[in-house]
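re the bet — no i am not wrong, look at it urself. input seq straight from the record:
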Amino acid sequence: MDQVNGSVVTEFVLLGLTQSLGMQFLLFFFFSIFYLGIILGNLFIVFTVIFDSHLHTPMYILLANLSVIDLGLSSTTVPRMISDLFSDCKIISFHKCMIQMFFIHVTGGVEMVLLIAMAYDRYTAICKPLHYLTIMNLKICVLLVVAAWIIGVTHAVTQFVFVINLPFCGPNNVGSFYCDFPRVIKLACIDIYGLEFVVTANSGFISTGTFFLLLVSYIFILVTVRQHSSNDLSKAFFTLSAHITVVFLFFLPCMFLYVWPFPTKSLDTFFAIVDFVVTPVLNPAIYTLRNRDMKVAMRRLSQQVGSSREMT
């Protein structure tokens, strides 16, 4: 890659989260517990959906894919963030920086499409229950997942092909604890005004547009339910509130990171941690603690695992 873009820079310097030893231990404990929760919570959802035939429906297949994406998104940054807490020299190679940016945007793009697909699934289930199995069959569900991956990869590649060919000849301080397109392109040795617009349009405007599209769809669902039966409104709102919470947790940090014209390091760091650490660990809790079918399935899976251990 160095030969392709002619860069002099072969590594980048990442920003430390804190210089206080006490805060380093506190953050180490915090991030380690949360990352363990991300791994166990999301994998438990994936295995529960795979091994419980009662959950082989579009809603739970999409949920399992969301868990895989949350695990992947978190793994692009959190392990490195934990290992860098006690490191005096926070260096990342040019190649690893590019790879990190690429996979952040692949997983982020896939998650956006999956959240849209889940909103469409809920719209069909609530507003068109008699046609649900026809509209949201397994074939359509698989096509939505494949489309999510295609769009996610395309979203990342359209930015990556420009950044990988930029010349980097000095300074190399990213100004954050991870590599991302808006910060890395500022270090290029050429005028990057046009490229900044591409990144903002690709990541910022798309996330903002998707956020408002999802909000409008949820409002439309609630209005439709209220017109048919006001008694079902509270039930529909309870069902959708989990999805709405996930949408706010995922998209608000994205919009701030890519659209807000006056970024500050402290707010950038806070919202990035929300996206990489907090949201992936809350999603399993939001979708399981508020979902009766998932709780029953998890209890059933735990009993099966316990029975198999007793037999051995």
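see?? The mean pLDDT is 85. told u. also The chain has one domain: 2-306. so pay up
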